[in-house]
Specification:
Pfam families: CorA. The protein has helices at about 50-60, 75-85, 90-100, 160-165, 170-175, 175-210, 220-235, 240-245, 255-320, 335-355; strands at about 5-10, 15-20, 35-40, 45, 65-70, 105-110, 110-120, 135-145, 145-155. By secondary structure, it is α+β, with helices and mostly antiparallel strands. A hairpin with an 8-residue loop joins strand 1 (about 5-10) and strand 2 (about 15-20). It contains ten helices and nine strands. It has two domains: about 30-290, CorA soluble domain-like (Beta Polymerase, domain 2, 2-Layer Sandwich), CATH 3.30.460; about 290-355, Methane Monooxygenase Hydroxylase, Chain G, domain 1 (Up-down Bundle), CATH 1.20.58.
């Protein structure tokens, strides 16, 4: 029996509407995600433009040099073709496509997969006038015997400067793909240092505002602390992967020396970020203490005014009870004496409170 296409009624007097089959999804070619692809032999970039499959074939046929392939935000289909050509593990490929990873190092046979978090300082006039201080991105690096693949996520993660600097130093590129990995890690950690130097000015401005004589605004302190924590999550976990790389036998000895320098810089960054976090926590405590002190001062002033009003109120209450047998009730100057007593009592209490800084 032939299948009958589904028909949805569109209401009385209107023709039925038939469901249309979904349009097939057109795959985006991998060339859209490729930023650069080059062959390096003896530290020199070889002339010509190559597809990544052709570049890899030439390197493996000659047994000399390596391929450096740069990708920006590839999708699943684009990354699948690269993975099949270079023999990348599916778990690492999944992480490279979907991003949002912590800094880590994973080793799949002879391929090392390094994840780096990048940070960028968002320029602003004041911390009170912004909602973001640091912007984060990610760089994933696949390093094999004859290739290095970089996958970038984010608009500020450009690596063209790193590639150009290395191409100007062929003696370093001769060390192989791991030298490219070091150069990228060095560039990322140097950006950490630059961001922490700029954040120091924000921390100083917040500290000054907390202890100023003007009004107290806690919101900027919480904002900056949130951004410092974001920076800490991006920076601190990287110390483990760098320690693994500096002790790995798969990394040439000369490259390990460079990586130790990067680890030293990273330690400096982590110390600064931890210091900023501690300072902001102290500022929050100081701000809370300042608010509590202000509340105590206000309560003392209110209590002083209440005490000053209590004496006259008590005297007026006693003589307002309308009993006939009360002392001096019919005494002619009694009204004026009571008024003077109220004023004198209020003045004495007020001077005493001012002497003890309650008013």
């Amino acid at each position: 029996m032939p299948s009958i296409p589904s028909i949805r009624g569109a209401g009385w007097g209107q023709p039925p509407r038939r469901d249309k089959p979904p349009l097939p999804r057109i795959p985006v070619p991998v060339s859209r995600a490729i930023v650069d692809c080059a062959i390096y032999v003896d530290g020199e970039r070889q002339p010509g433009n190559y597809a990544y499959t052709e570049a890899l074939r030439r390197v493996r046929e000659s047994g000399n040099g390596f391929v450096w392939l740069g990708l920006h935000a590839p999708d699943d289909g684009q990354m699948q073709g690269v993975a099949e050509a270079f023999g990348l593990h599916e778990l690492a490929v999944e992480d490279a496509v979907h991003a949002h990873q912590r800094p880590k190092l994973e080793v799949y046979d002879e391929v090392q997969f390094l994840v780096l978090r990048t940070v960028k300082y968002v320029e602003h006039e004041s911390i009170q006038a912004t909602s973001e201080v640091v912007e984060t991105g990610e760089i994933m690096i696949f390093v094999g015997k004859d290739f290095v693949i970089t996958v970038r996520h984010g608009d500020h993660t450009h690596l063209s400067g790193v590639r150009h600097r290395l191409e100007a130093r062929p003696e370093q590129l001769m060390l192989g793909p791991t030298m490219a990995m070091y150069s990228i890690a060095d560039r990322v950690v140097d950006s950490y240092l630059a961001v922490t130097e700029k954040m120091e000015a924000d921390v100083d401005a917040i500290e000054q505002s907390v202890f100023s004589q003007g009004g107290l605004d806690i919101d900027p302190v919480y904002l900056l602390k949130r951004e410092v924590l974001e920076m800490r999550r991006a920076v601190a976990p990287l110390i483990g992967p760098l320690s693994q790389l500096t002790g790995s036998n798969q990394i040439p000895k000369e490259v390990r020396r460079y990586l130790r320098d990067v680890a030293d810089h990273l330690t400096t960054v982590i110390d600064r970020v931890v210091e900023y976090d501690d300072v902001l926590s102290s500022l929050l405590d100081a701000a809370a203490a300042k608010v509590a002190l202000q509340q105590n001062t206000d309560m003392r002033r209110i209590s002083a005014w209440v005490a000053m009003a209590a004496g006259p109120t008590m005297i007026a209450g006693i003589y307002g009870m309308n009993f006939d047998n009360m002392p001096e009730l019919h005494w002619r100057p009694g009204y004026y004496v009571v008024l003077v007593a109220m004023v004198l009592l209020t003045i004495v209490l007020g001077r005493n409170f001012r002497k003890h800084n309650w008013l």
